[in-house]
Amino acid sequence: MSDKPVLLWVGAVPVPVNVRAAADDHWQLRPYRPDKALAPQLRQATLAVVYPNSDGCNPQYLGTVLMELASTPAVAIFLLDEQAEVARRMLSRRRGQFLCTSTTTPAEMLAAHFLAARALQPVIAELRSDLHNLRQSNRNSSAPAETIDEEIRLAARLQRDFLPRRLPEVGSARFGVLYHPASFVSGDIYDITRLDETHVGFYVADAIGHGMPAALLTMFIKKALQTKRVFGNTYEIVPPEVSLTELNEDICGQDLSSCQFCTVVYAVLDTAELTVTYARAGHPEPILVRRDGSVELLEGEGCLLGAIEGQTFEPRQVRLAVGDRIILYTDGAHDAVRRGSDRKFHKILGGLLTLPKEQLLTQLTTRIEAGSGQGQPSDDITVVVMDVER
Q: What is the pLDDT of residues 156-209, one digit of tens each?
């Protein structure tokens, strides 16, 4: 087993000549496995060299890498070519444990960057350890811990007040929800709103990360996402792609100091025409289950929110029929039930997808609790089921 520090190459192979030369005999160069989660691979590395390639213009990819990086002590160096303008703009707005340099940086200079990044890694690890010890101390200290615990409980109660108290019934649309925070507060939020006599808007949002920062972002989303505009005695229903565009600008306009990104899927159902218009912002594809049991994934382009200004989102529309079902969910639901499987969420659920929605949500809850072992999953979980009934 080599005692050299691990340098994780996050990019297409082969590894560029200048990176190999910079690593030389001082690093154990290890290509990452794209079929596996990135965070565990980062935890085994001292340094990651990230070359976004064509994904350099994909804020969703970059946002995911930054969030995975923030959950580990590893330091990253981003190699950016001249065409990676989106990546440069996005990374320049963020602070974190990473450096940026050009793909043409000479090997000698890269080697110096590697050494500087390596020097940062123990400092980051020590800070994480100090933070962990401080949290443990707070748990063991009665008065401060009780105060913090009470404040978190109050925050959780406030967050739940933002959720629908009663699921609306509009036309033939009927809803069911599974909402399972990983802790007191959640980085997930959903809403189901009657927009008028024939339209209902519904969405699921997932703030990247956990704890209070993610929970605060969900409450911002709840208040900032525009679904309907009223002008005197008239009104207009805001199209989903417009809602997401405006929400993205609002989040970016806050100029948040930490990596506060979120994914959202927002849909508007017309119960008179039985059509759903929707837009996705980096969120898992909704599942459409037809009456005959066939399954479709509702695709659509759109990066995660809060990454970069000026993004647009693709509107999509699908026609429904009586007996059809749409399922929105956060990736925490998939992670909780996959048990090592890399299959898509709808394939893991299989026959559960056609059960009555109450049974589906009950069975899904059972699987989640069985999968977590302790009855408490590691990520927030939200599932919204919309049925078209007779």
A: 666 666 688 789 999 999 999 999 887 777 788 899 999 999 999 999 999 876
Q: Residues 259, 261, 267, CA angle at the centre, nearest 5°?
A: 175
In the chain, where the domains are located: 6-136, 159-388
Find the helix packing angle between 142-161 and 211-224, rounded to 10°.
20
> Tokens at residue 318, please?
């699908």
Q: Give CA–CA dist 25/271, Å, rounded.
A: 65
* Amino acid type, 272: A
Counting runs of H as helices and runs of E as strands, what totals does the chain give?
11, 17
CATH hierarchy code of domain 159-388: 3.60.40.10
- Burial-class residue 79 by CB neighbours within 10 Å (0-12, 13-18, 19+): buried
Burial of 120 from C-beta contacts in 10 A (0-12 / 13-18 / 19+): middle
- Model's pTM, two decimal places? 0.72
User: What is the C-alpha separation between 189 and 258, in angstroms, rounded?
Assistant: 20
Pair 372, 336: CB distance under 8 Å: yes
The Cα 170–Cα 167 span in angstroms is 10
Structure tokens at 81: 């070519």
The CATH T-level fold of domain 6-136 is: Rossmann fold (3.40.50)
